[in-house]
Design a protein that fits this description.
Elements (H helix, E strand, L loop, with lengths): L2 H8 L12 H4 L24 E8 L26 H8 L2 E3 L9 H10 L3 H4 L15 H7 L3 E7 L9 H4 L13 E5 L9 E2 L7 E2 L4 H16 L6 E10 L10 H7 L26 H8 L3 H28 L6 E7 L25 E5 L9 E2 L8 H5 L1
Parallel strand pairs: 1-7, 1-8, 2-10, 3-4, 3-7
Antiparallel strand pairs: 2-9, 5-6, 8-9
Helix pairs in contact: 3-11, 8-11, 9-11
Length: 392
């Protein structure tokens, strides 16, 4: 299989990196099940292996991206048009998985399945504040064993209770699930102007300004340095936006002006009476809903749209960096999300439910030379646990 053909085929599948079967390179069996396998390091054929760039937005629902508007006959529920030019361009050059869903629309359970290819019933990650167990068959272990330089930057959320500095630091070792080459991460934080991250020591590195800007800077630097040798890289960048808090203090002024003051109407399936806020968190009963959430819902939706645009800006920076450093033709890029956001539809907020607004998460991918022409959306059914086995 020649490189161009491989790169085009590689974009087809669940993770958006599907088709990267290791058997295409060295005769090794593709570890689809990941059960009981031992992977030996193999750096043969490095020159024929594409780089991998996996980017995740947190709580990014498909209907809040401009490219998905045709699904809803314009914009979702008559909302102001999203400002996501870079995501839209990427989707236009990609395989766009319109039927992609999150089978467990909660942050940590979804991420554990992403990294292992296993269901929450196997990982044990059924709520956010549990710790993912070491797994020798996790995706980074497999990629590393087959000659990839691995990197993880951003929100990890697999190290258990996420309050306090001690829980933010994930020490080198098995709980990093194979990300042994480069680590610049934290367990959990969505206060985007109070950001920090850790490397390999319990030393907090404070971030000035908007946290995602710095994380993208680190990612671009990683790709530039990794390209200085012949070893392909696999970089996972997990950004926070547009996850709440949905406040203007948490949003860059650059994007605030696009949506502040605009009305985001209630969708047809919005429910006030009989709302079910209590199913998201204890104490959030109907009284809380009416006094605290309901009056602020337009601001929350507007801030969410602005944070989505802030995420879009980072996508544009990454695609530009790939071009500027001569990496675009040798890199498969995938944009994903762990889940969406209900915003009052069906009387629900946040996620953790299977109405469309929560599990319908963005997923699109492109492979090197395939970006030179537009690609059509696919109705292939994709499942969130398929990403890990398909990508390797």
């Amino acid at each position: 299989m020649d490189r161009r053909k491989f790169l085009e085929n590689a974009a087809l599948g669940g993770l958006g990196l599907s088709g990267l079967a290791l058997s295409d390179f060295d005769g090794a069996a593709s570890p689809a099940s990941g059960a009981g396998r031992t992977f030996e390091p193999d750096s043969s054929g490095d020159a024929d292996r594409p780089n991998l760039l996996f980017v995740m937005g947190d709580q990014l629902r498909t209907m809040s991206c401009g490219y998905a508007g045709d699904r809803y006959g314009g914009t979702y529920a008559g909302e102001p048009a999203p400002y996501t030019p870079n995501i839209d361009e990427l989707a236009g050059e990609s395989t766009d998985f319109r039927n992609a869903v999150s089978g467990y629309p909660v942050c940590a359970p979804h991420r554990a399945s992403l990294m292992t290819g296993k269901y929450p019933s196997s990982t044990g990650m059924v709520i956010n504040e549990l710790r993912a167990m070491p797994d020798p068959d996790a995706i980074a272990h497999v990629l590393e064993a087959h000659g990839y330089r691995t990197g993880f930057i951003g929100k990890w959320h697999l190290y258990g209770k996420h309050h306090g500095d001690r829980q933010q630091f994930v020490p080198p070792g098995p709980y990093r699930l194979g990300f042994n080459d480069y680590w610049a991460a934290f367990n959990f934080n969505h206060r985007y102007y109070k950001g920090s991250y850790y490397r390999d020591k319990f030393e907090k590195i404070e971030i000035e300004g908007f946290q995602p800007n710095t994380l993208t800077d680190l990612s671009i630097d990683f790709m530039r340095r990794a390209d200085d040798d012949d070893q392909p890289f696999a970089l996972f960048l997990l950004l926070g936006p547009p996850h709440d808090p949905f406040t203007w203090e948490n949003t860059p002024a650059t994007f605030e002006h696009l949506f502040k003051g605009k009305k985001f109407p209630d969708p047809p399936n919005f429910e006030t009476e009989g709302a079910h806020a209590q199913y998201w968190a204890p104490g959030r009963d109907h009284e809380w809903w009416m006094e605290n959430w309901y009056p602020k819902r337009f601001t929350y939706r507007a801030a969410y749209a602005a944070l989505t645009s802030a995420l879009d800006w980072q996508i544009g920076r990454l695609t530009s960096a790939l071009e500027d450093h001569g990496l675009a033709d040798d890199t498969i890029m995938a944009l994903n999300s762990d889940h969406g956001e209900m915003f009052g539809s069906q009387g629900r907020i946040a996620k953790k439910i299977f109405y469309e607004e929560a599990p319908r998460a963005c997923r699109c991918s492109c492979a090197g030379p395939a970006r030179s022409r537009s690609r059509s959306p696919t109705r292939r059914s994709t499942w969130w646990t398929s990403r890990r086995p398909c990508s390797v």
